[in-house]
């Protein structure tokens, strides 16, 4: 009897963040405490409150001249309209501070308290995440998502290339608006047989679905789990930089569609060109052996109405944030109202509705915990007052960079971070308090950092094993190495596009 070798398994996001938390705790004993002076605009008095590194407060006129005096390269209008509402670090004001380091018992207490405090400080975000998860669970239970996709697929029979176009586009739309990702797992059993019956291979199905979700979340426009949280943490409105993110969404989606169609048509004309040709018989037996691709859920009026109401919530959310200054409490209230509306039109019994809502919320409980844990890391850095020290060290390296080089460096930084922390929301609340002020130092808008974060961690989601890719591949019985061979040229193209657009954003 031989012992089985144990293979290394990459840890989950929770373990990664806890390790980061531990590393930061250790780091606080080696990094000196320090602080930048900061300024914050007071809308009632129409002036700035300037806080020195030692905590002393003073006021300054609320004018562009004041910002110029302190070398803060931000338009005064962004302070006045509330786009920038958090304290902004004043460049070249960093000072070291004397601070007592806790003993071993104090360090353990601080380590255990940080996630709890993080949960308390992010409860508004977590509430919204859970409500949205509940709604998605209910809509999924009614079959509205699946019915819409399947009915559309059936109507396009004979025009299979359009199937790729529409499936990828619709899923990308879901990704960019509400972070449609885990929910796409439900689409594979329905769509894979349809794609294969059309003469394509299973890789085309996963490309249409997974690439749609990946490019959508990468090019997030109003996705509350990435761009909204990141912008909120960075102290700007998520509508800042929206135009360029829309360009990335459109161009990125088109590139993914054409890339997939090119491969799909090649496979349709010559099946031996398939990257998974050696699995052809096996996959056809599995997906087509006992399947009737004409049996698709009916996309009735009730399902259409549910999707319209669900989509309308995001339109109202954007308007509320931009015009009425809504924060997460108001957004959560909006989607709670949508929950009540769906309860009446879903056709589910009270017991089933509540059960599915709770199940849907529980599916995103992991996201909520990641947000809390990641916030705990920030809390440790704030208590030790090393965030500004880290910012000072990083700014020393990039302060003389041009904006274009800086944006490119940030893109690759977030690619690396995206591998270790695949949760978009967790990465946002962990990184933005440190990264966003670097834009002020270099002299570019903070939305450049948001775009670099979105696109860097987003492109990593195409292949990161800690994300959804392995689960998605398992659904269609495709191995990871085949997926890598298929997707890496596409990643290079999308990455080049991201770098170009980041360079353009510097001048906007």
UniProtKB/TrEMBL annotation:
Gene Ontology cellular component list: plasma membrane
Cellular localization per UniProt: Cell membrane
Alphabetical keyword list: Cell membrane, Membrane, Plasmid, Transmembrane, Transmembrane helix
InterPro entries, alphabetized: C4_dicarb_anaerob_car-like, DASS-Related_Transporters
Transmembrane segment boundaries: 12-31, 125-149, 161-181, 187-211, 218-236, 242-261, 305-321, 327-345, 357-381, 401-421, 459-480, 486-507
Main location class: membrane
Protein name, as recorded: YfcC family protein
């Amino acid at each position: 009897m031989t012992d089985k070798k144990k293979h290394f398994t990459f840890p989950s996001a929770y373990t990664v963040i806890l390790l980061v938390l531990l590393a930061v705790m250790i780091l606080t004993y080696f990094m000196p405490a320090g602080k930048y002076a900061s300024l914050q605009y007071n809308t009632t008095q129409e002036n700035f409150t300037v806080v020195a590194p030692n905590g002393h407060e003073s006021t300054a006129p609320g004018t562009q001249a004041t910002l110029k005096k302190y070398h803060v390269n931000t338009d005064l209008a962004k302070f006045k309209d509330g786009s920038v509402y958090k304290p902004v670090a004043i460049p070249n004001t960093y000072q070291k501070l004397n601070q007592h380091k806790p003993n071993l018992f104090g360090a353990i207490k601080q380590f255990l308290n940080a996630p709890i405090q993080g949960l308390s400080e992010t409860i508004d975000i977590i509430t919204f995440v859970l409500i949205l998860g509940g709604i998605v669970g209910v809509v999924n239970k009614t079959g509205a998502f699946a019915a819409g996709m399947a009915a559309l697929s059936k109507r396009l029979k004979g025009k299979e290339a359009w199937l790729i176009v529409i499936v990828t586009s619709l899923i990308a739309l879901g990704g960019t608006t509400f972070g449609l990702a885990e929910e796409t797992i439900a689409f594979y059993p329905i769509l894979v047989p349809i794609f294969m019956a059309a003469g394509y291979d299973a890789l085309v199905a996963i490309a249409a679905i997974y690439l749609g979700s990946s490019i959508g979340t990468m090019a997030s426009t109003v996705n509350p789990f990435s761009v909204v949280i990141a912008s909120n943490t960075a102290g700007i409105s998520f509508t800042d930089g929206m135009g360029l993110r829309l360009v990335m969404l459109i161009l990125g989606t088109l590139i993914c569609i054409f890339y997939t169609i090119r491969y799909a048509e090649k496979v349709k004309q010559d099946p031996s060109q398939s990257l998974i040709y050696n699995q052809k018989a096996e996959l056809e037996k599995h997906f087509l052996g006992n399947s009737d691709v004409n049996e698709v859920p009916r996309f009735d009026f009730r399902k259409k109405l549910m999707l319209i109401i669900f989509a309308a919530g995001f339109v109202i959310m954007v308007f509320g944030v931009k015009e009425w200054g809504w924060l997460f409490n108001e957004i959560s209230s909006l989607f709670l109202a949508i929950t009540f509306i769906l309860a009446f039109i879903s056709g589910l019994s009270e017991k089933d509705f509540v059960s599915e809502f709770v199940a849907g919320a529980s599916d995103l409980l992991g996201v909520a915990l990641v947000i809390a844990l990641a916030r705990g890391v920030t809390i440790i850095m704030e208590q030790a007052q090393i965030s500004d020290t880290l910012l000072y060290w990083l700014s020393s390296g990039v302060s003389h960079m041009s904006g274009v080089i800086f944006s490119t460096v940030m893109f690759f930084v977030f690619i690396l971070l995206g591998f270790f922390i695949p949760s978009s929301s967790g990465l946002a609340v962990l990184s933005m308090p440190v990264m966003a002020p670097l834009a002020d130092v270099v002299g570019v808008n903070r939305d450049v950092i948001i775009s670099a974060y979105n696109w860097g961690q987003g492109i990593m989601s195409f292949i990161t094993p800690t994300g959804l890719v392995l689960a998605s591949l398992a659904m269609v019985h495709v191995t990871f190495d085949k997926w890598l061979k298929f997707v890496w040229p596409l990643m290079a193209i999308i990455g080049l596009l991201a770098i170009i657009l980041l360079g353009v954003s510097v001048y906007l």
